[in-house]
């Protein structure tokens, strides 16, 4: 017996509107056997890098054959290409805007096809809702057994858009880096662009961001008192900033555009650098 096809949705649509529900309705209309999982619909609006990050960190936890529908698409309706990518044990439908950068990095041998065959679109696609009219139908037809090559012509992976995933700049004193906020979760924990491996080069690290300076890097929330800030390696393998029993993003004035500094203890960074 063939396994039940699995489709995973990743969008910035939120859940207060009908967008996600309609996408699920389209999938169910085409492939009644498909199981649909919501990875998240809380990606910051139009934040392609955040979507790429969460896709990358989630992939290992899904079974072979999973089809990912990734719709964070600020270029919807423009000349940007809609893609289907077959990579490793997975298939992905997404706009060609860099969201699939981690997929290209993980799987150098892959197949890319344009979603150009209108037989696998809804009739008269909207210029603003390709998640419903192009990406969801493509995923449902894949789940129903349609081969990737039937969706449209092949395109070279080298022609597909890529983005810089993490922007970390060495500080002038070479005692750390200036980085960025990748994501802020619903608890207010701030995921930064610093990976765990970066902390191996010195014995003692501090983090400075927003209104907080010299936040110590510890193991977990219980290592500090309630109301105190902390930094730690989160489940994603990236350095995070939190406020125990509080919302670090809001209370420490850290947003998506806030620079973050990882620096050796005693080497407070120049925030203008």
Brief characterization of the structure:
The chain folds into two domains: 6-159, Rossmann fold; 169-264, Elongation Factor Tu (Ef-tu), domain 3 (Beta Barrel). 17% of the residues lie in helices and 28% in strands. The chain has helices at 19-30, 48-58, 101-106, 130-143, 248-251, and strands at residues 6-11, 35-40, 67-71, 82-87, 90-95, 110-114, 169-170, 176-179, 181-184, 190-195, 205-209, 212-216, 229-233, 238-243, 260-264.
Could you characterize the architecture of this molecule?
The chain has 273 residues and is of the alpha+beta class. The protein folds into 2 domains: 6-159, S-adenosyl-l-methionine hydroxide adenosyltransferase, N-terminal (Rossmann fold), CATH 3.40.50.10790; 169-264, Beta Barrel (Elongation Factor Tu (Ef-tu), domain 3). Helix content is 17%, strand content 28%. The protein has 5 helices and 15 strands. It has helices at residues 19-30, 48-58, 101-106, 130-143, 248-251; strands spanning 6-11, 35-40, 67-71, 82-87, 90-95, 110-114, 169-170, 176-179, 181-184, 190-195, 205-209, 212-216, 229-233, 238-243, 260-264. α1 packs parallel to α4. The radius of gyration is 21 Å and the shape is elongated. The model has no long low-confidence stretch (mean pLDDT 94).
């Amino acid at each position: 017996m063939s396994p039940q096809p699995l489709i995973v949705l990743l969008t910035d649509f939120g859940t207060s509107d009908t967008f996600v529900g309609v996408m699920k309705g389209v999938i169910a209309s085409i492939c009644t056997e498909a199981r649909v999982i919501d990875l998240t619909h809380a990606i910051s609006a139009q934040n392609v890098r955040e979507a790429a990050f969460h896709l990358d960190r989630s992939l290992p936890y899904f079974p072979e054959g999973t089809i990912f529908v990734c719709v964070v698409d600020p270029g919807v309706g423009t000349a940007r290409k809609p893609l289907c990518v077959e990579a490793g044990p997975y298939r992905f439908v997404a706009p060609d805007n860099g969201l699939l950068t981690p997929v290209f990095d993980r799987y150098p041998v892959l197949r890319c096809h344009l979603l150009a065959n209108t037989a696998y679109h809804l009739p008269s696609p909207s210029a603003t809702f390709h998640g419903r009219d192009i990406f969801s139908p493509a995923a449902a037809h894949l789940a129903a057994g349609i081969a990737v090559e039937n969706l449209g012509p092949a395109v070279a992976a080298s022609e597909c858009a890529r983005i810089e995933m993490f922007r970390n700049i060495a500080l002038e004193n070479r005692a750390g880096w200036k980085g960025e906020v990748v994501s802020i979760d619903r608890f207010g924990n701030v995921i930064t662009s610093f990976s765990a491996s970066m902390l191996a080069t010195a014995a003692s690290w501090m983090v400075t961001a927003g209104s907080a300076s010299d936040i110590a890097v510890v193991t977990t929330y219980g290592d500090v008192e309630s109301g105190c800030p902390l930094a730690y390696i989160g489940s994603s393998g990236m350095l995070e900033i939190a406020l125990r029993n509080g919302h670090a993003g809001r209370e420490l004035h850290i947003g998506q555009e806030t620079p973050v500094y990882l620096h050796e203890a005693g080497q407070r960074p120049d925030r203008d650098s």
